[in-house]
Amino acid sequence: MRVLLTMLLFWSISANAQQASVDKKPDSATQRENPVSTVPYETGKESGSTCEDRWSNFLPIWGRAACERGYLLPRPFGVSAGYMHQDQPFDVGNIFVNGIDVKSPGIAVVDEVQNEESTYTLRFDAWILPFWNIYGILGRTSGKANGPLKLSLEPVFPLLCQLPGNNCNVDTTFVLNYKADVVGYGTTIAGGYKDFFGMIDYNRTRADLDISVTDARATVISSRIGWNGKIGGFTGVLWVGAMYQDVAQALDLPLDIGDSVLDVSIDQSTQAPWNYLVGGQWDINRSFSLLAEFGFGERKSQMLNLTFRF
Hints:
- The chain is mainly β and 310 residues long.
- It is built from three helices and 13 strands, in the order ααβββββαββββββββ.
């Protein structure tokens, strides 16, 4: 009888424990899926505190409460060194020769400008809230723009074009090489559930082009959704997304027509604002990560980024 009562008591305790496990909320705090790995990612299982005793714990706001409940947050501060290469067509807006609009009357024709550039950046960021990041950007860009240019300057400069040796009908292809210092700022909103996440990023940059009297300005909005986990020896993040770019810049082209050099200014803007993204990030450990992303469509891009978090 005692054996039977002991077995019944054991069964009752076990059943109550199983029921309590079922009754737990599925969206409670999470723990590491792979406890051997130094890189955390989430399964939805409840766990204890994941807080680190670090000087930078004053950010993000509410971060302490989140890690005490078991949520794993990235370290609040980051420094990133990045490289990005882009190749895309630009639409041509106004065309000015010595300050005179020559596109509206059809004197000048530029079908499109193909723009290729490489940018090196240094980025500083901080998580202000567990879901909100802000950052600043410093960078250096070098690029090349080329396209067909047709000019008939006789209606604008009739006396100049009558002089011997002057060629006022120009049909050529121009190539401009340029460099620029880049400064900018941005913000990111991110969130996730278990192994999945989503984010939206917004940034604005200004480039001081060495071939233009005006700065190039760019607004970039991107969104990504992805998966956070482990595949073989890879621990990190994989995603797909889309990027919108609104870029406006001017190119200044000195044009030799014989006895005079004309200042041709070409305004250009993004022809294909949207392209699609696929990328991944390898989380080497809690401090270092390596990111690679590729863009497809009319705008083709490749990005590589190394980040240190502290």
